[in-house]
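Page 47, continued from p. 46.
Same chain as before, 372 aa.
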Amino acid sequence: MYNALQGDAPTSKLYVSHGPLPKKIDAGQPPSKKQPFSSILKHAFIHSITLPEEMYEIVWSDIASKLQPLKYSRVIMPLSVLLEGDFFNRYIKSDNLYGTGQLRLELPRETYEKAGLVGEPIRDAGRKHMKTRYAIEIDLRKPSMVHGKKGFERIVWAFKNVLNDAVTWLFYDFDTAEDAPADIKETSPLTKHHPVTRACESRSISTAPVTIPESLHSKISEPWSESSLRTHVLELSEWLSLVALQSPRVHADDEIDPYLSRYSRPEGDLTEIKKLVIVKWSGFIPAEWLRQLFIVCIDHCLRHRSASSPWFALSCQAFQTQVVDCHDGYTILGLSPNEASHTAPTDTGHDGAKGKLRQEGGSYVLWEYAHA
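Result:
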C-alpha cells in the first residue's frame, strides 16, 4: 500500500492496494481482518456497483435474491435517550455481533468545557479561522458504564443539563429485519420516538457503449516498477470514476476537442466496446450489508463461466464524520480468476512448472480515498 498522490495533492490522499481474493469464502464467518474486507467494515456508505451489461443480465437476479432488504430509520431524540432503560440495555449493553457501544462526540470549546467530559482537541490540519473543537469518545460497553457509578453519572448529568438538545439520528436496527418476529418489531424501544422508516431501493442505469481499457483485463500481477503500477492504477481509477458519473468522455463515440477536455483514455489497444450497468443504492447502509454484497458479487460475477471477461467494481462514499484524517470512501475492482491469472514470471527457480503465477480465487484492486 502506498500514497498514490503524495506530493501532488497534499490535502488529499489515495491509498492503493491489490492482491488475491480468497478461493473460498464462508458466508457464515466472512473475513473481517484481511483486505479488502477490513476496508469495507470501516464505515456506512452511499454506494454503487458497476457491471458489464452481459454480466448484469446473467447474474443480477440471483444476486438480488440473496441480499437482505435495506431499511433504516430517521429519528429525532436527545442524547439522554441512549442511556435510558430499554434502549440502553437492548442496543448498547446487549452482546450482539454488530453494536460496538462506541459513542463519539465533537463539540466546540465552550460546550466542551460546560459538559465536563474528558476529550482531546481535534487537529485542524493548519486551517486558518477554524475554531478549536474537541472529540469525546465514550465506550458505553465498559463494565463501569452502569447507573450508580461516578463516571457514568457524570455522563448522564452532561446529557441532561448541557447536551440536551434533540438531534437527528440515522438508525439501523439489526433486530427488526424482515424475518424478525412481529412482537420484536412492535416492542422496539425506538417506536415511542416515532421514527420515520425509509427503504433503500436499488436503481439500475444502463450506460451508452463505452470503450473498455485494455488495462482492465488485469495485468496487476505483472512485476512492474512502482511508477508503472502507479500510472496503471490511477488510470483505472479515473476511468471507473468517469463511468460512475456517466461521463460522455468514456463513450465509444466521444470526439471532444482536447482543448476542452484534458482526459485521455488509458493507453493500449482499446478494441472492446460494451455497455455497462450501474446499480445504485443511497441511504444509511451498514458495513455488514456491503460485505455481504461484495461476497455475493464475487461468487456470482467473478466465478461465472457464461460471460467473457467478468469483472465488477464496487464504489462507496462515506459519511463525513471527522474534520481531518477522514476516509471519504473507496472503490474495489474485482477481477475474475481467468482475468487475474495472466501469467507472469515468478521469482523462484527456473523450472517451467513454476514459471507462472495463478490466482484461482480472483484478485482485487482497492482504492481508498482520504483527506488530511
